[in-house]
Amino acid sequence: MQSETSETMNPDDQINGEAQSALAARTASDAPSAAAAPAGPQRTLTIPRGTVVLAATPIGNTFDASARLVALMEQADIVAAEDTRRLYDLARRLGVHVNGRVVAFHDHNERSKSDGLLDEVETGACVLVVSDAGMPTINDPGLSIVRRAIERGLPVTCAPGPSAVLDALALSGLPTDRFCYEGFLPRKHAERVQRLRALQSERRTIVFYETPHRIADSMDDLLSAFGPDRPMALARELTKDFEEIRRGGIGEIRQSVIDDPPRGEIVLVIGGASENEALEASSSVLSVDELAVLAIDRALEDGLRIKDAIAEVIEEHPLPDGSLANRKQVYNAVLKIKQ
Ligand code: SAM
């Protein structure tokens, strides 16, 4: 297993000294709709009016805040923040004053709040949407307002930036040309196993978010679903002081999780299935009648009760969505064959 840690810049501390003055200089502006931007061909940063702007915030390192985020935080008419305390904390670290109205905008109220915010957009307001860290809508609030804005024909744009998905993918060393993002695995074991089974024939690199208290169970399930040799990377504390990337086969990484449980925020990146693995996974899908024939053979060969043989073959041959065939249907098919 390859493990790598890197020292990054003092992320959680307040930006101070030179950096603070640089930020202050680039965000200072007398005009309500323009902020000074870094030197270059485009010297002013225009804040769009009558628009929803989703903006990515740092996932650990405050220095990853873009000039556009800083200007938007200062000048948006309304800031819809997942957690208003975290917004003000970020503003403090960036040395920015949030001048607009701040509203809480989280998973529990985003549906009911979106239309009210869009009414303000209709009257010309710039509504900035930020989550606690990273890109809004990526396992974070934001999708409701985007959808409603589209339905109502109102402008919505994005000030992109940090997101743990792309950071981990890029650092994994696994193919990046085709990948899929699977968010968090389900909490319940049976649902997690079903989700992973459905991914057994997935050829693209797969990205999951994970938490320290579930990582050990998830590694066990990843091992059963994909085997010990499938390459993967475990990326934790990205952009922070204790950033670490563990790369290796699933078996090795699982062992490392047992020996040295990872703490902090985690992303798992799993290599896609090889052509053979994908073929094997998709050809293992059987019809109810085929499962019945297999169960009868298994019962005879291994001296099992038919019910136990059915349970075994059903488990070994999940349906394409990862769920299992209905036992009763397979049992009825067995009875039909025996008659
Ligand atoms: N919107 C965020 C984004 O764009 O990455 C994701 C928010 S989701 C609620 C939080 C999860 O993202 C964490 O549990 C972890 O899996 C992942 N994550 C966020 N920041 C991370 C970091 N600095 N290092 C590793 N994983 C991180």
Automatic annotation (TrEMBL):
Subcellular location: Cytoplasm
Pfam families: TP_methylase (PF00590)
Catalyzed reactions per annotation: cytidine(1402) in 16S rRNA + S-adenosyl-L-methionine = 2'-O-methylcytidine(1402) in 16S rRNA + S-adenosyl-L-homocysteine + H(+)
Gene3D superfamilies xrefs: Cobalt-precorrin-4 Transmethylase, Domain 1, Methyltransferase, Cobalt-precorrin-4 Transmethylase, Domain 2
UniProtKB keywords: Cytoplasm, Methyltransferase, rRNA processing, S-adenosyl-L-methionine, Transferase
GO CC terms: cytoplasm
Bias type Low complexity, positions: 19-41
Disordered, as annotated region: 1-42
Single GO MF annotation: rRNA (cytosine-2'-O-)-methyltransferase activity
Record field: compositional bias (Polar residues): 1-13
Protein EC: 2.1.1.198
Alphabetized InterPro entries for the sequence: 4pyrrol_Mease, 4pyrrol_Methylase_sf, 4pyrrole_Mease_sub1, 4pyrrole_Mease_sub2, rRNA_ssu_MeTfrase_I, SAM_MeTrfase_RsmI_CS
Protein's UniProt keywords contain Methyltransferase: yes
Domain named Tetrapyrrole methylase: residues: 51-253
Highest taxon of source: Bacteria
PROSITE patterns: RSMI (PS01296)
Function of the protein: Catalyzes the 2'-O-methylation of the ribose of cytidine 1402 (C1402) in 16S rRNA.
Family of the protein in this entry: Belongs to the methyltransferase superfamily. RsmI family.
NCBIfam families on file: 16S rRNA (cytidine(1402)-2'-O)-methyltransferase
Protein name: Ribosomal RNA small subunit methyltransferase I
Species of origin: Bifidobacterium callimiconis
